Amino acid sequence: MERAIERGAAAQSAPAPRKLTAQTIKAAIAAGVSLVCLVCLLAAGVVGRELADIGVNGAFSGAAVIGALFQGGKLSYSYLVDGEKIFVTAYLPTAIGVLLTLCIALFLALFLYQAALVVLFRKRGEDNAARLNAIGGWAGIGLGFLCLVVYALLITLNIPTTYLVTAGLEDVAVQAAFYKVFSPSVIWLVLCPVCIVAGMIQRKIDSAQVVLLKRYIPSYLFMVFPLLLIAVFNLYPIVLQTVLSFKDYSLGTGIFNSPWVGMANFKEIFLSPEMLRVIGNTLYISLLKLIGATVPPLLLSIFLYDMRMMRAKKVVQTIVYIPHFFSWVIIYAITYAFLNEEGLLSTWLGTSSSILTDPDWFIFIVVLTNIWKELGWGTILYLAALSSVPPELYEAAKLDGAGPWQRVWRITLPSILPIVMYLLIINLGQILKNAGGEQLLLFANAVTKPKAMVIDTWLYWSSLGELKYSLGAAMSFFQAAVGMVLVYGCNKLSKKTTGIGMW
């Protein structure tokens, strides 16, 4: 009886097991993700064999790469050709082997850190748990970007690599660029977003957000199918295009079986005088269109805002809005009816020539028709911004003796500056795509074709027409990269100078 009482007292005095809290759960999830990534790197292929000229492909696991470091980078395999066994010995460069091993070691260290956090939180409580989880989250995000860097290095490094082909009694030693002997595994591209998302969850989500997540789980489930569609029809083509830009693609071999060429496509873009002219022409036309898409709609919106005759205002708005809904085919037909040899303008001027075939007038016509088409549509956001300006400001300015231009400069423009900066940032991010390929393809002819040669038209005429798919993919990759940098830079500059930004 006394022993039973003692056991009951001991049970009551023993500390109750700690409940799983948000910080512990985050650390456990991060540890699980790190472990899965580590297993994938050790068991799956981290680098492949890419001997396209003899039809060899496959993958070496992380464990095989680590083992090769102790054998001078030696990686061997064999394959059959017409019943004869061919042995291939490829020598992984030491720098690449060390880099891949270092990545695996970092994933191991991250897993041990996350596992230690789980044990620490369960044993000693969650003092400084948020800070420790934030460190783990940043480490996971850093490893995610490291995976992307490793993939980029594996497809671009021009390190001389040797492989030995043995057939019967004959040995043939060949030296080639690294990316022609080995290929990067897609596992690096998979681990990149996985690590970044896991790191952001570990760093950002707190207890209150976990409660909200549990509450809105059914709502989030509705997002699964749209996200899958985005992944299949947006993200996957982007990955294919990125891979294609570093390969010498041919229709017979397909994207993944085509040989890697490193930075050869990008070198052709930046070293070719023709490509530099195309990029320069694109920037020139895009900047003119950017000015035309900003200044005229802004002036028209100010004019419409000050109109007091509502019926006339609606008529003007309707007239300037209609061209936006016309296709470029209709716009060109209207332009041709006015500007061809027998058009209205030529008849009125009494000339038999057409300025549509004059290279000196080509860019002017392109920019002018673009302004006419998009003028009304561009005023919508400006008018919406102006409608939120308190009328009392204008009345007070009038009482103080401010003239119309002073009111515009001191009240109107500062009030709509946020929307102006927003549109400017968006348009600058698309500056390499805003030249208007569809419009230029319609307006160009044999005489004005050099003036119409921008990136979009080059992709159509040269990339698709001459089957330069890899070069076209590299150019598209360059467009996207420049656009991303411009959007980020313009947003930073806008926040620094005006305090206004998109995020």
TrEMBL record:
Keywords associated with the record: Cell membrane, Membrane, Transmembrane, Transmembrane helix, Transport
InterPro entries recorded: MetI-like (IPR000515), MetI-like_sf (IPR035906), UgpAE/MalFG_permease (IPR050809)
Keyword Lipoprotein: no
GO cellular component terms attached to this protein's record: plasma membrane
TM segment ranges: 27-47, 54-70, 90-120, 132-157, 177-199, 220-239, 283-306, 318-339, 361-387, 408-432, 469-488
ABC transmembrane type-1 domain location: 279-488
Subcellular location per the Swiss-Prot or TrEMBL entry: Cell membrane
GO process terms (BP): transmembrane transport
Broad class of where this protein is predominantly found: membrane
KW Transmembrane (keyword) present: yes
Gene3D superfamilies given in the database record: MetI-like
Bilayer disposition of the protein: Multi-pass membrane protein
PROSITE patterns: ABC_TM1
The family this protein is said to belong to: Belongs to the binding-protein-dependent transport system permease family.
Protein name (record): Sugar ABC transporter permease
